[in-house]
Design goal:
The protein is mainly alpha-helical. Among the domains are: 167 residues, Serine Threonine Protein Phosphatase 5, Tetratricopeptide repeat, CATH 1.25.40; 99 residues, no CATH class. Helix content is 37%, strand content 7%. The chain has a two-stranded antiparallel ribbon with strand order 1-2. Strands 3-5 form a two-stranded antiparallel sheet. Strands 4-10 form a two-stranded antiparallel sheet. Helix 6 runs antiparallel to helix 7. The longest helix has 26 residues. Pfam families: SusD-like_3, SusD_RagB.
Length: 504
């Protein structure tokens, strides 16, 4: 990966929430940039440019979700060779179109964040706003490195860390020695972000979707969890919990509604809108919708739940009906009640969490993108929500030999379940799976970091018909498949200086 990514987006004078189309891109070094970074408007444009790649269908929509699809909670949904090879840990998917851009898309955001960190400090403008913009840059830099690190880095090699302040154009940055070097860098970025960013409740609606303080604190907790620094994971989870800025919504199903995009459970989401000719943001709800949407909308029919997930729910768990659509279930679709059935889902099930935007009468243009080829909705898919922060604290406490009953029972209470005592890691794993199924919390990486993936994937997967195997047992090698392969085009562009992960 080259140190400099030759792209720069300018969205002069528009707020991020006004974006409903892809932003204009001008190559770095063009004459229009000669007088850039002079005014507060330039700073705003630079900040908005960081968020522009989030509209790419593979950023928070399809692409990277193929990696999450590797878990035992879901199957591809319908025939897709590249996706099937990913799920089977078959290296023939390397170089394919859906995951190849994950690396470069995130380094584009990092490059744009670094531009802000180098140039905005010298701009004469309101200091509090300047600090917020710098905080956003540190946050998005840290978040991008975190997402790259846990997908591509391990004990043998991390991912390249670009010099923020004095980059050398054209130079190839080598991979960090190991993933912990990356996590240390992420921690540094997120701590700087947390010190500069305001709380979300100070934002006006026009600023919703921008980074804020407790999002930085929550990702610090999650980074420390992945780093296996459990004391700090607990501490930073506590900083979110004790901030008084967040709370669980009383009803689990309400979390996944447009009206609650920005309520107390919100920490960080994939900002999305149906506005404009093709919407903007995450296409995940449309990707998960029944193929062709029963003739009403262009659903893509991917990421369908497995019976193994369905059967894991305890009797009386309110999360089951809010998470899974099973044959015979009633749900609202395009303003009318419909009985769920499918003619094309591999498993016979569908995730229900992202279905609310499809329930309105005449939803296209208001709740659904007018373009089924870019099926964004007015629902923001959660990337990290408050319930996960509570579970991060619970896991961190258990890994330190502490009692985590209070945290786990807080989650169980909302699910309509009885409290437990003497909770163990088995209980934590169960609650995390039930609470976060089908979300960006990433069940696959949970299994990998717990050391459970090899055993889990050695079992076949089933659908609504319990007698039918819909996905055969897979061979997961924990020494190889604990990370995903570096995109081949990045290896080629580096002249081989960036090497492939061992075994891929």
């Amino acid at each position: 990966m080259k140190k400099t990514i030759y792209a720069f987006s300018i969205l002069a004078g528009l707020s991020f929430t006004a974006c409903n189309k892809k932003l204009d891109v001008a190559p770095e070094g063009s004459p229009s940039l000669g007088n850039f970074w002079q005014t507060s408007k330039d700073a705003i444009s630079g900040v908005n440019a960081m968020y522009e790649p989030f509209d790419d269908e593979n950023f928070y929509g399809r692409g990277v979700f193929w990696f999450i699809d590797a878990s035992d909670d879901m199957v591809v949904g319908r025939g897709k060779p590249e996706a099937e090879n990913i799920k089977n840990f078959n290296s023939s998917f390397i170089g394919g179109s859906y995951t190849e851009g994950q690396w470069s898309l995130r380094y584009i955001v990092i490059k744009r964040a670094n531009d802000i960190l180098r140039n905005v400090p010298a701009i004469k403008m309101d200091e509090s706003l300047k600090n917020r913009y710098l905080g956003e840059a540190y946050f998005l830099s840290g978040l991008m490195y975190y997402q790259l690190a846990y997908n591509y880095g391990n004990d043998r090699a991390g991912i390249p860390i670009v010099n923020k302040y004095t980059p050398t154009p054209g130079a190839v940055v080598p991979r960090a020695a190991n993933v912990n070097v990356n996590y240390d860098s992420v921690v540094s970025d997120l701590k700087r972000a947390a010190s500069l960013l305001p709380n979300f409740d100070t934002y006006k609606p026009a600023d919703y979707g921008h980074a804020h303080r407790t999002a930085a604190l929550a990702y610090l907790a999650k980074t420390y969890l992945y780093k296996k620094d459990y004391a700090n994971a607990e501490s930073y989870a506590d900083s979110v919990i004790l901030s008084g800025k967040h709370a669980l919504l009383p009803n689990f199903a309400d979390v996944f509604t447009i009206a609650n995009n920005w309520t107390s459970e919100y920490i960080w989401s994939a900002y999305s809108t149906a506005a404009g000719t093709s919407g903007w943001g995450s296409i995940l709800p449309g990707v998960m919708l029944e193929l062709t949407g029963w003739g009403a909308y262009n659903g893509w029919g991917y990421y369908m739940p497995t019976r193994e997930l369905v059967d894991e729910y305890e009797s009386g768990d309110l999360r089951k009906a809010a998470t899974i659509l099973q044959p015979g279930d009633q749900f609202k679709y395009f303003g009318a009640m419909k009985t769920y059935s499918t003619t094309n889902s591999t498993s016979g099930y569908q995730f229900r969490k992202y279905m609310e935007p499809f329930g309105y009468d005449k939803p296209i243009g208001t709740y659904l993108s007018p373009s089924g080829d870019h099926p964004t909705t007015a629902l923001n898919p959660p990337l990290l929500r408050y319930a996960e922060v509570i579970l991060i604290k619970a896991e961190a406490k258990l890994m330190q030999g502490k009692n985590a009953d209070a945290e786990i029972n807080l989650i169980r209470k909302r699910a309509g379940l009885n409290p437990i005592s003497g909770a163990t890691m088995t209980d934590l794993k169960h609650e995390r799976r039930m609470e976060l199924a089908g979300e960006w919390a990433d069940r696959h990486h949970d299994l990998v970091r717990w050391g459970d993936a090899q055993a889990a994937y050695a079992k076949p997967l089933h659908g609504y018909d319990p007698t039918k195997v819909i996905w055969p047992a897979r061979k997961f090698n924990p020494d190889v498949h604990n990370v995903w392969p570096v995109p081949q085009r990045e290896i080629d562009a580096s002249g081989g200086k960036i090497q492939q992960n061992q075994g891929w």
